[in-house]
Amino acid sequence: MAHAMKRILVKLSGEALIAPDGYWLNPQTLTQLASDLGQAVAQGFEIAVVIGGGNVIRGAKVGAAGWIDRATADSMGMLATIMNSIALESALEDRGISARTLSAVAMPSVCETYARQPALHHLRKGRVVVLGGGTGNPFFTTDTAAVLRAIELKCDAVLKATQVDGVYSADPKRDPSATRFDVLSHDEAIQRDLKVMDTAAFALARENRLPIIVGSAHGEGAITAILTGRAKATRVTP
Ligand SMILES: Nc1ncnc2c1ncn2[C@@H]1O[C@H](COP(=O)(O)OP(=O)(O)OP(=O)(O)O)[C@@H](O)[C@H]1O
Ligand SMILES: O=c1ccn([C@@H]2O[C@H](COP(=O)(O)O)[C@@H](O)[C@H]2O)c(=O)[nH]1
Q1: I need a labelling partner for 61 at 20 to 30 A (CA). Which of 3, 39, 46, 131 fits?
Q2: What CATH number is given to the structural domain containing 226?
Q3: pLDDT of 1 above 80
Q4: Quick one: which residues bind ATP (predicted)?
């Protein structure tokens, strides 16, 4: 099927992988995400994925607590994203969906090291490309990694598939009076300091005129439903 947007970078939350009993990885969530990403590929989308590490560690929080150096905590965070990435790769392959993990942090006995050309090759072959290790540098987050890789790999948009169904005037989990946007500009998102993505990520997207779509990852086929316009989502556009 032909779509106006073809190559999409899907940003998944690491925190969403936590199981109801608190274990860091919920196999049901992984299976649902894998099946959803497989549906998107079957619909003709080329899919790259960046998955966060918030189910294991967030470097800024641990660094601020003071018991470990921030850069070290960030390295731990990047490693957490690689664990999540290979878990997702495994869930995809188990369902017959061809996938490759490429890591910004070299660990050749675990997965390929990220380079742009091989990543593009895998995408053209219809493989889901799971990009682990964030940017490979401390003091960044996987939101920024998602935007960076989307630009490098000439993606049409970043889809942030998250816990909420769009961008709100404030965090809807904390402020029940927050109102939802259907569309807004990168400028507005930055000026209003909307925390659904970090400012560095929004700024990089603005500079490169990269659209960001924010919608809910919950429910069967949620990602494909957003990409095909069947589910509501907020579009952050230049
Ligand atoms: N203005 C806002 N509009 C929508 N959501 C917001 C807003 N401000 C804060 N949020 C919160 O941001 C969260 C989205 O971030 P999420 O936890 O999915 O990603 P992350 O922190 O990038 O991922 P990870 O869990 O891997 O670290 C939403 O669940 C929502 O509660
Ligand atoms: O480029 C990057 C990306 C991530 N990190 C560290 O990993 C954790 C987990 O990522 P989230 O985006 O918060 O889910 C992050 O908090 C950083 O500590 C990094 O250092 N560099």
Answers
A1: 131
A2: 3.40.1160.10
A3: no
A4: 11-14, 54, 58, 162-163, 168, 171
